[in-house]
Amino acid sequence: GFGSYRIEESVTDHREALRLALGSGCNLIDTSTNYTDGSSERLVGQVLRELEASGTLARDQVVVVTKSGYVQGRNLEQAVAREKAGRPYPEMVKLRPGLWHCISPEFLEDQITASLERLGLDQIDVLLLHNPEYFLKRPGSDHAEYYRRLRVALEYLETEVARGRIQAYGISSNTLVDPKDSPEFTSLEAVLDFAPPGFQVIQFPFNLLEPGAVFEPNNTGRTLVELAHSRNLGTLANRPLNAFGPKALVRLADFPRHDLVDAENELKDAFAAALAVEGDYAWDESLAAREVAWAHVLKHNFEALSELTEWRDLVRYRVTPTLEHAHAALRELGPEARSWVERHREAFGRLSLAFDAWLEGQASGKSRQMGRALEKAAPALRQPPQSLSRKVVRIYRSMPGLHCVLVGMRTPAYVRDTLEDLTDPIPAEQAVDAFDTIAELGEEDTSPRTKEPRT
What we know:
This protein has helices at residues 12-23, 39-53, 73-84, 105-119, 143-163, 188-192, 212-215, 224-230, 260-279, 294-300, 308-331, 335-377, 388-397, 412-419, 428-445; strands at residues 2-3, 28-30, 63-68, 70-71, 93-96, 99-101, 124-130, 166-172, 199-205, 234-238, 242-244, 249-251, 404-405, 407-408. The chain is an alpha/beta fold. The strands form 3 sheets. It has a 9-stranded parallel beta sheet with strand order 13-10-9-8-7-3-2-1-14. The chain has a 3-stranded antiparallel beta sheet with strand order 4-6-5. Strands 11-12 form a two-stranded antiparallel ribbon.
């Protein structure tokens, strides 16, 4: 399955990746109303129409799954406008500024209409309630009211099946796999007691470090997948390569190798240079030093920044925008400030690259360790040589009861890496042994090392 989280219609790589995936045997696309504020759905619709018009792909060869529930971006603007007009959506869950959630029939009707328009389809194959457990995050919420809201939502979606706008529906929930005593647990067993006939699909997290859906009973002695299989439900596994380990998020993929000694020495030197430049900052009265002192921030939070993807997201979404704004303001203060800005840009740029390389080296070592452990547990993975991500996807596809693994493939290279050599699942018993091996490895330490280099 092609996971469409963070794909956008304006990015050529995303468009080409989806085309290549659909031409390489991928036959399910998973998106949502809130993915890139609707741009994900628009890209999916555009690519499907292009391929259908060219005769490359027939509409009935692809299952299109989208989800509704989050109230963010334009959805939030619309909800706020309705409130101001005296027509608020019923049963809105307001978690914090910028993040609301709703599964009321009135909201779902509008969301389905918008999704059909963005996708350019007459019918959505599968509509999932997107993380409805957000209701349970509110203080004082209870499961009785939660299941009442789910019942009302599912009964409404059954009318949409009769109307012809959706073919089937279900729930995508991170807490379907939780232990029964979890305060945010979504019980599939409880839902099935009142679910109408159109309830046919569930989606949930599943990966090497979070295998509960297959291995941990939480529905009267049965695992989530066992119960789903007994009721003939489709099962979609998400987050297959982004696993939350005991200490940090672990990316189950290969990374460039770096000489760790050289990477550590370069990081040490880059830190010293950037900290020295920030020590010369002299314009605090015009612009607070905290707006530019990112080397100091990084040093202070070093052990918390142990995961490469989180670090890159921090740079992209917080550090770079903040520095660009601060540097632009400082350039207006005269030649000395402009000179400092150029020194700081060079020094922090070097530090950013050094930290990135050091984290890549840490992640690469862990990936190679996991890859060797998987090949030992599952000899079928040894040939042909494969990336870690391809190994784990093959393992998931060999697990009984899992119908589809959703992989976020945002570049053509990633599509090729994921889909090559996947036609031959490995023996199920070897797949189970692989999970046992990773569990044993995790007891040692599944998170990247976070020891700060000596400075």
